[in-house]
Design brief:
Elements: H1 16-29, H2 33-45, H3 53-66
Helix pairs in contact: 1-2, 1-3
């Protein structure tokens, strides 16, 4: 049974290629980007993997298409590009 929640707009900055992969994945799964992110976070909060093997294969394809080479080891170590 669905639970009623209150959602708010937020201005979150995300790495460009990562956002492209997330949007592509949301489209593939027929979800909104917000629904995808909520599901990922709720799974992570419980220590559960959010994706099936089939979805992980699709993510790998999207990573290749959009040139996303970042990994979990890169988290919390990213710096913004300097605009000249």
């Amino acid at each position: 049974m669905p639970k009623t929640v209150t959602r708010i707009q937020t201005g979150v900055r995300v790495e460009k290629r990562l956002l492209k992969v997330l949007k592509g994945l949301a489209e593939y799964l027929d979800l909104s980007l917000g629904d995808l992110l909520e599901g990922m976070v709720l799974h992570a909060f419980e220590g559960k993997a959010p994706f099936s093997p089939e979805t992980l294969r699709q993510i790998e394809k999207l990573r290749t298409v959009y040139g996303l080479e970042l990994t979990a080891a890169d988290s919390h170590q990213l710096e913004d590009a300097k605009n000249d």
